[in-house]
Automatic annotation (TrEMBL):
It comes from Mycolicibacterium flavescens (Mycobacterium flavescens). GO terms for molecular function: alcohol dehydrogenase (NAD+) activity; metal ion binding. This is alcohol dehydrogenase. CDD domains: MDR_TM0436_like. It comes from the Bacteria. The keyword Repeat does not apply. Residues 28-138 form the Alcohol dehydrogenase-like N-terminal domain.
Amino acid sequence: MDPVATGLSRAAVWTGTGVEMRDVQLPDGETVVRIRLATVCGSDLHTVAGRRAGPCPSVLGHEAVGEVVAIGPRTELSVGERVVWSVTSSCGACARCRSGRTAKCHAVRKVGHEPFDGDWPLSGSYAEHIVLPTGVAVQRVPCRLDDRVVVPAACATATVMATLEAAGALRGRRVLVVGAGMLGVTAAAASTEAGAEVTIVDVDEVRVRSAQRFGAAADAGGVVDVAIDFSGSSAAAAAALGRLDVGGTLVLAGAVLPGAPLPVDPESVVRNWWTITGVHNYEPHHLEQAVAFLHRTDELYPWASLVADPVGLDATGSVLAAAPVGALRASIAP
């Protein structure tokens, strides 16, 4: 029977010790999306491994694509449309939102990061349905884009769009990408499309070889104009900083867990006119850019190969227990 007709949805709830399947009442008068495909981001693996604090119990998952099945106050959407949505829900009225930093809204709530026993139990994508309150940005998906191509848009791809914006104009510049996971591979392709000369480095040589299918060359050392760190390693970021040419920029995007301090020599920053900046989450226009970028490059790069064949919702616990083999993202098809 159709879950919407019964008013119930099944969800894989992270309890702190494992995953339990629970039925959840679907709310009336809210925008509800049926999950078609969800991917497992590294931050969810960190939560399950105990490296990252978060509400518990909760429905995890924030990279997904789905189909609108019920309309709330978001009147611009229609039932049946395929969509992706932002990681953050913002108020739109506080000083940060008004300044263009909605991802750092004073009242921010996050998809896949809210307590199951709160007022937004279906906040994550490891469920049959997700509820999208006002304040979550939603982007329609072009018809020809496969679910496996577009599914990382709301986290990995949109975050990359934000890092490239922070890096500035890239045409003709030498760009070093540190970390060849989903974000690094995406950044390599996006930087190449922007006209940069791109190299990539990672401790995993298999990942480096995979990244070469997305416009990057293996790193051979030397000075660069822009370094973008997705590794989260202070040592790797320090090494990248030391390779910047005069006027260079270091963008930090991977350090989302506590780590060692980054050693910075102020004199070197001053004399070399270096810029060091950080990016965490993204703005709604970055999500729009992400979908457009995947649409433009759909036939140029093998995006679908980065996402493993999906498992069912009942197997969520198994894909949260270990990284996928032969792909950068595990996936779940509720």
